[in-house]
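ok new one. same drill as before - structure tokens go in, u give me an amino acid for every spot. 275 of them this time. try not to just spam alanines like last time pls lmao
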């Protein structure tokens, strides 16, 4: 005799319990956490009655923090814990800058959790900071508001992460959008295109003598401390000073700029409203 086993409808008789999971790449630099604390504060203001959890997608960062005696969950562990605690509807907000590899990983993780019997009824993922034309316009305007007052021969270079993922196209796109507003602001990346060497040529062509280096990352973490403003030959600071530029570093992640954080919060609100 053929016996069929069928799972009952997931959580059919459970009381609805909503929660928020904020997912960042992560940082192990203590001073950089001010950006994530600011994000948490802004999300709390927008969702005062909802429990907020955090997870880091970077296994390297999680391992490093564990060695320091600090524990933070991966997205799969964080979501599993929330499911075990009875959360039926979860809004997951990507705190990443672009929809790249880490965002893809997050989407796959959510899909896996949703396939678990008796797991959450619904999980919605909020878009990362940059996802469409409107996002880019809003981010560019927000970043320009917070620039130092530039003199005629001064310019700004933002440091983005960069990626082999096709979403790296957001970085040269940002150069185009900035160029519509000013001829003194440039975007470069650590691990993608455009590079700092590409940007150095543009600085010279535009007659810029002093450069402000500013991170275009949610936190002013390891890349900012080492690759942007580190005291070694390959740091952007040393490359530019060696090329004859005066250079000043501004160590402030995008998570510290409320006009930028408001875009992440809006994406979270969109996801939450879909629950």
């Amino acid at each position: 005799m053929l016996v069929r086993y069928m799972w009952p409808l997931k959580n059919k008789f459970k009381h609805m319990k909503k929660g928020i999971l904020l997912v960042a790449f992560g940082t192990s630099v203590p001073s950089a956490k001010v950006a994530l604390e600011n994000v948490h504060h802004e999300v709390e203001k927008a969702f005062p009655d909802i429990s907020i959890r955090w997870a880091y997608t970077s296994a390297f960062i999680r391992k490093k923090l564990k060695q320091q005696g600090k524990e933070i969950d991966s997205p799969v562990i964080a979501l599993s814990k929330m499911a075990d605690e009875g959360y039926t509807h979860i809004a997951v907000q990507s705190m990443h800058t672009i929809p790249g590899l880490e965002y893809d990983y997050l989407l796959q993780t959510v899909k896996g959790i949703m396939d678990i019997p008796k797991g959450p009824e619904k999980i919605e993922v909020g878009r990362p900071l940059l996802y469409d034309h409107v996002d880019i316009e809003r981010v560019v305007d927000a970043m320009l508001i917070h620039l130092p007052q530039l003199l005629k021969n001064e310019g700004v270079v933002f440091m983005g992460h960069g990626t082999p993922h096709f979403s790296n196209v957001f970085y040269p796109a940002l150069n185009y959008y900035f160029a519509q507003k000013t001829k003194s602001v440039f975007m470069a990346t650590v691990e993608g295109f455009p590079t700092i060497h590409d940007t150095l040529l543009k600085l010279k062509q535009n007659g810029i003598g002093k450069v402000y280096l500013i991170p275009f990352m949610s936190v002013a973490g390891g890349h900012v401390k080492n690759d942007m403003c580190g005291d070694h030959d390959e740091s952007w600071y040393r490359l530019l000073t060696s090329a004859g530029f005066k250079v000043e570093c501004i160590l402030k992640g995008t998570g510290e700029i409320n006009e930028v954080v408001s875009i992440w919060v809006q994406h979270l609100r969109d996801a939450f409203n879909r629950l």
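Strands lie at 18-24, 51-56, 89-94, 122-126, 154-160, 185-189, 210-215, 246-249. and btw The first strand starts at residue 18 and ends at 24.
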